[in-house]
Design brief:
The protein has 321 residues and is an alpha/beta fold. It has 2 domains: 225 residues, Flavodoxin domain (Rossmann fold, 3-Layer(aba) Sandwich); 75 residues, no CATH class. It is built from 11 helices and 8 strands. The chain has a 5-stranded parallel beta sheet with strand order 2-1-3-4-5, with helices on both faces. It has a 3-stranded antiparallel beta sheet with strand order 6-7-8, with no helix packed on it. Strand 4, helix 6 and strand 5 form a beta-alpha-beta unit. Helix 1 packs across helix 7. It is globular. GO terms for molecular function: oxidoreductase activity. It comes from Schaedlerella arabinosiphila. This is Flavodoxin family protein. It holds the Pfam family FMN_red.
Length: 321
């Protein structure tokens, strides 16, 4: 049997809390016989996404591999690590409510360019047409993967990390990586290093074991089963953040983009998401196809603005030094 590989992606400082927590989990994976790799992403030079859409446009037209126009940075290192991985452990400190800026830059570059519902058809078309493998996306793009998310915040109050884990799904959902565990370490300012918190390090060992168990599972249901401590409100992403204001008792999970109903039962809030809604979560294939088809339709039916170049002239140079 081919050895499974687990890659840790850290957006924290060298040998600080985030890095050491990821490495504790990786050591458990290595002990279980898995190949491991660690990337300190802040050491890499990653250009920002320009929003030019050439990566996705090429995939939709059956041309190219979905690669970015940027050719002179280190993103290829992250991409190859992702392609080779069967499991990922992603960690980022929380700065202002959410993961770091560098984390977001990498997520933007992963984004639609690596979405399995864009890459999958391009791969199938390339193979069917007998094209050279280097002319279509890497076939490893769509293989099943599992993942775990970690965030670290100095604040003693948990809600100062409230947008961290929800945002970290940006890393995993384009490629359909199934998140089987996640952990939020807050109050890190109370002690100078997480190595002084044996309870947290034990939890990281458990997180690593959860990755191992998922990768060794014999069924799809068991492989994708969520193993985290906090099951949350949403049964898909297991987050408890909700968007309200849709009228009546309708609410939405902003991670999954699915609608639920909120009720007060015996003085307790209960939120219910139907099976139909759960299946169209953007973390699942049906929801991903719903979105990618929306993008395809938009690209095909996009209306052109007449005299656009002339209309833009009014704004050329406004406020610029």
């Amino acid at each position: 049997m081919e050895k499974k590989k687990v890659v840790g992606f850290s957006f924290g400082r060298k040998m600080s809390n985030t890095e050491v927590m990821i490495k504790e989990a990786l050591l458990v994976c290595e002990k279980a016989g898995m190949e491991i790799q660690f990337l300190r992403c802040d050491d890499l030079n990653i250009h920002i996404c320009t929003g030019c859409c050439s990566c996705v446009a090429g995939l939709m037209m059956g041309k190219g591999r979905g690669h970015c126009i940027h050719k002179d940075d280190d993103f290829h290192i992250i991409e190859e690590a992702l392609m080779s991985a069967d499991g990922v452990i992603v960690g980022s400190p929380t700065y202002e409510f959410a993961p770091t800026g560098n984390f977001k830059v990498v997520c933007d570059r992963i984004g639609p360019a690596h979405d399995k519902t864009f890459r999958g058809p391009a791969i199938e078309q390339g193979i069917a047409q007998g094209k050279a493998p280097e002319s279509y996306p890497d076939p490893r793009s769509t293989k099943p993967r599992v993942g775990a998310l970690i965030t670290v915040g100095g604040a003693r109050t948990e809600n100062w990390l409230s947008l961290s884990l929800p945002n970290m799904y940006e890393f995993t959902f384009p490629m359909g990586i199934d998140v089987v565990d996640k952990y939020k370490y807050f109050g890190a300012m109370n002690i100078d290093h997480v190595l002084g918190r044996p309870d947290v390090m034990e939890r990281m060992a458990k997180l690593g074991q959860n990755i191992v168990d998922a990768l060794q599972a014999e069924t799809e249901e068991e492989r994708t089963r969520y193993r985290g401590d906090d099951k949350g409100v949403c049964p898909v992403c297991h987050e408890s953040i909700l968007t309200v204001g849709y009228g009546g008792n309708k609410v939405e999970c902003p991670v999954c983009g699915i609608e639920g109903t909120l009720e007060l039962v015996n003085g307790e809030i209960q939120v219910t998401f139907s099976e139909e809604q759960q299946n169209r979560s953007r973390l699942r294939d049906a929801g991903k196809w719903e979105h990618s088809n929306e993008i395809r339709d938009g690209a095909m039916t996009q209306k052109k603005v007449e005299n656009l170049k002339e209309l833009k002239m009014k704004y050329l140079g406004v406020g610029e030094a």
